[in-house]
Design brief:
Elements: H1 4-23, E1 37-39, E2 47-48, E3 52-57, E4 74-77, E5 92-102, E6 111-116, E7 119-120, E8 122-127, E9 130-135, E10 153-159, E11 163-171, E12 184-185, E13 190-192, H2 194-235, H3 241-259, H4 267-292, H5 299-321, H6 332-349, H7 352-360, H8 367-390, H9 393-396, H10 400-404, E14 409-411, E15 414-416, H11 418-462, E16 473-480, E17 488-494, E18 500-507, H12 511-529, H13 535-546, E19 555-562, E20 567-573, E21 579-580, E22 583-584, E23 603-607, E24 613-617, H14 619-622, H15 633-642, H16 647-658, E25 663-670
Parallel strand pairs: 1-5
Antiparallel strand pairs: 2-13, 3-4, 3-5, 5-11, 6-10, 6-13, 7-12, 8-9, 8-11, 14-15, 16-25, 17-18, 18-19, 19-20, 20-23, 21-22, 21-24, 24-25
Length: about 675
């Protein structure tokens, strides 16, 4: 007997060591699911509640009671989906139960808490029959989280004691964005003191933040660039490329908020918004490619881009409205079918970015734009491939999306995959090309401003600031361009015969092009006037010179010759008729200048008696417009000139009404005979 005693003692010691090793820091995991889990070593550490749990599909709040007999329930593991363990396509409610026994002698006043996270889709936690917490909300008003980024739950269990832990799990209806195995407790719950659980939560949150550090940094940098682009666009609305840049730069922040920030977005909002956000980003990206890669000259390509943008946004908007329905109360199969039907076409449209990049290969691009084209091409291919092979994994079982999403490198604790790398390269290339584009645009604006400055100086030379002396007549002028440079012109030329020649006209179009046409016309008038002072002949010769030289435009014009005794000869080339004492002169119809070379113009003759008031003007006076759209019109013009105003007063009246085009007014008033000295100084000249 004596020799056998050491063997018995040794065997007992080995069994004790084995039991301690099995329970160290983790609690003992019984082999049977209905056997209690014995927790030991509660203190600063937390204890994982691993091993088999009692499991039953369905819902009955009586299952929360510690007295309920769950011995007939099946066994399941926490930390794995229930579909992986044989419960295929199970949605709705199912219960997990675990009998927990605390080892003897827990310290007096010790409290317990439960650390719970990664639940698909929401749950309630019951401890000894009492609801103590949960994640999200279960029906009838469910709330669950997109991409399982719900905030981990710290559930207080109260004073340390043995009991039954029951977790009521609800799995949301299946949507298109679904994986082969879903449902249940995706992570093993852990128990411990509130301090230990809080420390575990802090460590988990720190690790989570480290994993998101790279994407958070990229999102913030992109958002800053997007905000600057938006501010610049608000300052200059004509640079529409800035609004597309802003929308593209806000995309990383939006996606980070939807999919990476714990508790930021419920599933219904996240799943509803992610399609719209991606659609708007696709739109912005396509339009940026058109602007940056020089594709705006391809009219058909631009037109098709806008058509596809409209289709894409409609599809995404309809798909988003599906999330307004409560899938737990409606036909989930019908909603799933609609979700798939509206989502699949958007996958095909994502390849349009590839079409745009390929179209740009025929353009002459610099290195920066080639970098953008290649990075967008790779990003578009990776994104589209991931969406096509990833969203329907539940049915296709394709693993391409998983391989694309697998970490390739680690940077500062953040795992970077192919999507992250090519997406970041694309964002950097967009920022760089946008900067280059802004610099080039600024340089072009400086050059254009210099051209406008030159044009203004030229126009100031062409539009007389001081009028020549015209004995017996008071002539006033007013010139009000709608822009920095305009297309109206007038000239007052004393002739050797003692007569005065007045030429007034309006070139089609506005801005620099019109100003250049004015310089051509004024130069031609000066070259022809002395030898061909008859108004009709002057217009005929002027028309021959201008035909084919106005780049598809034209000019209306009036030529008036006033003799010293008040006799007047007038010819018009499609210009509004002058008003004599507020009444319109009857003129024969005629083509404007520059349209056809074989046109001959007719003259009319009339006389200005002392006190008569003659007004010549351009159509900008007639077309003055209020913000409501009301035109100044012929009736107001007649009433205006019937009062015999100066040119400046007439022009100011139209400008105050609402200027919409260049306005030029000339007034001629006969004030006496040649022997008198009646000259009035010009007013309102440019």
């Amino acid at each position: 007997m004596l020799p056998r005693m050491p063997r018995v003692v040794a065997l007992a010691a080995l069994l004790s060591i084995a039991c301690l090793a099995a329970s160290a820091g983790a609690g003992q995991a019984p082999s049977r699911a209905d056997a209690p889990l014995i927790l030991t070593g509660l203190g600063r550490a937390t204890v994982p509640l691993d091993g088999p749990w009692q499991f039953h599909p369905g819902d009955d709040l009586g299952w929360a009671s510690p007295q309920f007999d769950d011995s007939g329930w099946a066994s399941i593991q926490a930390g794995e989906t229930w579909e992986e363990q044989g419960y295929r396509n199970l949605t709705g409610f199912a219960w997990y139960r675990r009998h927990i026994v605390l080892a003897s002698g827990p310290p007096t006043g010790l409290n317990l808490a439960l650390y719970l996270h990664s639940v698909d889709s929401a749950c309630e936690v019951y401890w000894n029959g009492r609801l103590v917490g949960g994640i999200g909300k279960v029906p009838p008003n469910p709330v669950w989280y997109f991409l399982h980024v719900e905030p981990p739950a710290v559930v207080p269990l109260g004073p340390a004691q043995s009991g039954v832990l029951a977790i009521r799990v609800w799995k949301a209806p299946i949507v298109f964005f679904s994986f082969p195995n879903e449902g249940g407790l995706l992570a093993i719950p852990k128990a411990g003191t509130p301090e230990a659980v809080a420390a575990l939560q802090a460590a988990d949150q720190y690790q989570w933040l480290r994993l998101q550090e790279f994407s958070t940094t990229v999102a913030r940098i992109s958002a800053i660039v997007g905000l600057l682009a938006l501010l610049f666009w608000l300052h200059n609305r004509e640079r529409t490329v800035l609004i597309w840049l802003a929308l593209a730069m806000f995309f990383p922040l939006e996606m980070h908020f939807i999919g990476d920030v714990r508790g930021a977005m419920s599933f219904r909002w996240g799943y509803g918004l992610v399609g719209i956000v991606i659609g708007i980003n696709d739109m912005a990206l396509w339009l940026l490619l058109i602007a940056f890669l020089g594709l705006s000259i391809r009219k058909a390509l631009v037109r098709w881009t806008w058509i596809l943008i409209a289709i894409l946004l409609v599809l995404e908007s309809v798909d988003e409205t599906l999330q307004l329905f409560d899938w737990t109360r409606h036909d989930a199969h019908l909603l799933l079918t609609a979700d798939i039907a509206f989502t699949i076409p958007t996958f095909v449209l994502e390849f349009w970015g590839v079409v745009l990049v390929i179209s740009a290969f025929r353009q002459r691009l610099d290195a920066a734009r080639w970098t953008l084209a290649i990075s967008v091409l790779l990003t578009d291919l990776v994104q589209a491939t991931t969406d096509i092979t990833g969203l329907g994994q539940r049915w296709t079982h394709w693993t391409i999306a998983a391989k694309i999403g697998a970490p390739l490198v680690t940077l500062g604790g953040s795992a970077l995959n192919a999507r992250t790398i090519v997406g970041t390269c694309m964002l950097l290339s967009i920022i760089y090309v946008a900067w280059r584009y802004s610099v080039e645009h600024t340089e072009r604006e400086v050059e254009l401003e210099q051209e406008f400055k030159n044009a203004r100086e030229l126009q100031q030379f062409l539009i007389p600031a001081a009028l020549p002396e015209t004995p017996g007549f008071a002539i006033t002028s007013a010139y009000r361009p709608a822009r920095e440079v305009g297309g109206d012109f007038f000239q007052i030329l004393p002739l050797a015969s003692g007569s005065t020649l007045i030429v007034l006209g309006d070139v089609s179009g506005k801005g620099l092009k019109a100003a250049m046409a004015v310089s051509v016309i004024v130069g031609a008038v000066h070259a022809l006037a002395e030898d061909h002072s008859a108004p009709a002949e002057l217009l005929t010769r002027l028309n021959r010179r201008l035909t084919g030289r106005l780049q598809g435009g034209f000019a209306t014009c009036e030529v008036l010759r006033i003799a010293s005794d008040g006799r007047c000869t007038l010819a018009s080339a499609g210009h509004p008729a002058p008003l004599l004492n507020g009444r319109e002169l009857a003129l024969p119809g005629a083509f404007p200048l520059g349209i056809a070379s074989g046109v001959h113009y007719e003259e009319i003759e009339f006389a200005l008696a002392p006190g008569d008031h003659l007004a010549l003007y351009t159509d900008g006076l007639l077309e003055a417009r209020k913000p409501s759209g009301e035109l100044y019109g012929f009736e107001r013009v007649g009433m205006l000139f019937a009062a015999g105003p100066s040119a400046a007063d007439a022009a100011d009246a139209a400008v105050n009404f609402g200027q919409d085009d260049d306005i030029t007014v000339l007034t001629v008033k006969r004030v006496g005979t040649v022997s008198q000295t009646p000259l009035l100084a010009a007013a309102g000249a440019c």
